[in-house]
Structure formats: C-alpha cells, structure tokens
Write a structure and sequence with these properties.
By secondary structure, the chain is mainly alpha-helical. It contains 10 helices and no strands.
Length: 200
Amino acid sequence: MDNELSKAERTRQFIIETTAGIFNTKGYAGTSLSDLTEATGLTKGSIYGNFENKEEVALAVFDHNYSKLAQNIQQRIEKEHTFYDKLMVYATFYHSFMRNFHTPGGCPILNTAVEADDTNLLLKERAAKAIQKWKKNIEDLIQGGIAAGEFKTDTDHTLVALSIIALIEGGIMISKVTGAPANLDKVLKTVELMIIQIKA
C-alpha cells in the first residue's frame, strides 16, 4: 500500500514539475489540458486521476514555483550576518532573477496576481498570502535591524516593506514587457538606495 502511495505522489510531483513552466508562462486560463498531456506524456485520465481538475494542478504548481523562489531567497538571507546585508539580498537577488530563475515565465507571484485578480479567487488568495508573507519577512528584518541598532528607530517598516515589494514586482513587469532586464536593474538600484537611507 505504501508503494502505491509513493507512486501516486511521484506522479503528482512529476505533473507539477513538468507543467510548472507552462502555467508560469501561459497562465491558468492560457494553459489547456492538451498542454498538460503533451508536456507530461500522460493521458487526460492519468492527470485527473491525480488532480481533481486543472485548477488543482495550477494551485499545486503555484505552491511549487513560489516555494522554489522563497527557498532560494531564504538561503541567501541566511548566509548574511547583519540585518542590513540580509535586507540587501532583495536588492541583489533579483538582478540575476530574470536570467537565472529555473522556471520559465518569471515571477510566479506577479504572474498569478495579474492573471487571477478577477478570474480565479483561489489563485488570487494564494498570491495574496505570498505577498503578505513576503511583507512580514521584510518587516521582521527591519524590526530586527532597528532593535540591533542597524536601522533608524523611526523607520516605517510597513511602508519600506510594501515599497520594496512594489518596486521589485513593478521592475520585473517592466523588464518583462520591454524585454530589457536592464530596466529591472535600474529599479533595483532604487531598492538599494531605500535600504541605505534607513541605515542608522
């Protein structure tokens, strides 16, 4: 029985990993069932034997893409020793993001938020939770930095956190639409300056 479970889990994981780039590039609405069967080499029955519907695959794919991104950033943050350097990871990580993120299509949070805002409440909810978590992570770093004497005591941590997120996601969107990663690099320079400005 355990083997059956692990085989089912392996099939689910295979479907998620194989279709991750398709959903992230084409979006939920633009990804068809034939895209999924073509990419995986599985039948419609096999896919729906592991997932209730296309939406369930899309939600699992979002979780997969988001966790890959979040883990990547977290690993870099953990390597740094000061709150200032940890926060600065957000200004440096995304320089190479568009070129090196292994899932095609760019930022899964931005893609999902833009597509699902009015059309898919479950995906919208997933993107909203990801942004709330991201905001809290940045706020925690700023508050830790204030307590450690690295950042100015009057720093509005919520304002800075939301501004960093808005700049990064806006920069990704602009660079994607214009096909010019240099545009994102320019926006990230502003993120860097914002972090420098709150130094104590």
